[in-house]
Design brief:
Structural class: mainly alpha
Number of domains: 2
CATH architecture of the largest domain: Orthogonal Bundle
CATH superfamily of the largest domain: Citrate Synthase, domain 1
Order of helices and strands: EEEHHHHHHHHHHHHHHHH
Shape: globular
Strand order of the largest sheet: 1-2-3
Distance between the termini: 34 Å
Helix content: 40-55%
Largest sheet: 3 strands, antiparallel
Number of strands: 3
Strand content: under 5%
């Protein structure tokens, strides 16, 4: 054990094989089940991508329609969860991710599929995954309305996953450009290898805990500012630039002195994240269509141009990641910033469930070791003889 190499943060450690996604960090490419992410975003939608991730192939027209209809039918959340848990979290002013983690765990009590043999009954796992994925948008929209003193809006089954979520936020059918941007964001965030939250869900699933508990754990991991919470930090950073009124060069110098530019850099990509490219295209479309508030995107675009021209970031492999432009798209739709990570969850749950399915299918409990470096062979000191430490 003393000679074992330690990989801090599990850097470079391969935990398993997967058929779900592949990241080409030096090329700026991402594949979902073998399909380039640009093709996925251009030709598919959230429901189709979810089917692909869970079934391993693209659906036929009939399969797509049945899948989308079944997903939409599971959107309603049990009244007790809305009226008790969600309202209590709103009264306590909990972060939307804290509410979501508790609510997803509580949902397990309403699903008889939790009694299935997860290692062999794949369809039961998919049914649970559909229930979780369908209800996360409903919980998020309801929480946002309840904390504003408004009543939740019932989900509709005649709208797409993206359109229904935006509808539940304010009760009005959203513009097509909003739906397109949201749908794309939900697709491209769905999976990204063994990131922190995905690894968390696989660890939990390896104990044969339910998909609900695995997803709840994934939500906890995603909530951190070094993972899913970074898109909110980007907007806060841009707001700091706007409010202080400094010259861009002076402002950047201050932020670089603090060694942080949110939305730049990635553990895998050494070039610009392809998902950032896709979201930037949607931000441009909203700007050109004069839909929503474009100022945040303009600031992000100007900052990227400055950092590209005036720093050695790109030479060091530091480039915009997916969080850099996602917040500007959501802000254009007037979605509250503290909900952004919930939007990430709405998408990433598809990848989590797919990984949970892979883990169940060929399971071995994940149990790494840790090197002990503390003292040994100490003599027990009676309480009366102990002295308080300084």
């Amino acid at each position: 054990m003393a000679q074992t190499q330690i990989h801090k943060g599990l850097e470079g450690v391969v935990i398993d094989e997967s058929e779900l996604s592949r990241v080409y960090g030096d090329e700026g490419r991402l594949l979902f089940r073998g399909y380039d992410i640009e093709d996925v975003a251009r030709h598919g939608d959230f429901e189709e991508t979810l089917y692909l991730m869970w079934h391993g192939r693209l659906p036929t027209e009939g399969e797509y329609e049945d899948f989308a209809r079944s997903l939409a039918a599971k959107r309603a959340v049990p009244p007790k969860i809305l009226d008790t848990l969600v309202r209590t979290c709103a009264e306590m002013d909990e972060h939307p991710m804290d509410m979501l983690q508790a609510a997803v765990s509580a949902l397990s009590g309403y699903d008889a599929n939790t009694e299935a043999d997860f290692e062999t009954e794949t369809e039961a796992v998919i049914e649970m995954g559909m229930s979780i994925a369908a209800k996360i948008p409903t919980l998020t929209a309801a929480y946002n309305r309840i904390r504003r003193g408004e009543q939740p809006i019932e989900p509709r089954t005649d709208l797409s996953h993206a359109a229904n979520f935006l509808y539940m936020l304010d009760g009005e059918e959203p513009p097509a450009a909003y739906v397109d941007a949201m749908d794309t964001a939900l697709q491209i965030h769905m999976d990204h290898g063994a990131n922190a939250s995905t690894f968390t869900t696989r660890v939990i699933a390896s104990t044969l805990a339910t998909p609900y508990e695995a997803v709840s754990g994934g939500i906890g991991a995603l909530s951190g500012p070094l993972h899913g919470g970074a898109n909110q930090d980007v907007l806060d950073m841009l707001q700091d630039y706007e409010e202080r009124g400094l010259d861009l060069a002076d402002w950047v110098e201050e932020w670089l002195a603090a060694d942080v530019i949110y939305g730049w850099g990635h553990r895998v990509y050494n070039v610009k994240d392809p998902r950032a490219e896709i979201l930037q295209t949607h931000a441009e479309a909203l700007l050109e269509g004069e839909i929503g508030d474009p100022k945040w995107y303009r600031m992000a675009r100007d900052l990227e141009a400055y950092l590209t021209d005036e720093t050695d970031f790109l030479a060091k492999g530091i480039a915009p990641n997916v969080d850099y432009y996602s917040g500007t798209v959501y802000q254009a739709m007037d979605i509250p910033r503290d909900v952004y990570t919930n939007l990430f969850t709405m998408s990433r749950v598809g990848g989590w469930i797919a990984h949970v399915m892979e883990q169940y299918a060929d399971n071995r409990i994940i149990r790494p070791r840790i090197r002990y470096v503390g003292e040994e062979d100490l003599d027990w000191v009676p309480m009366a003889d102990r002295q308080a430490s300084d």
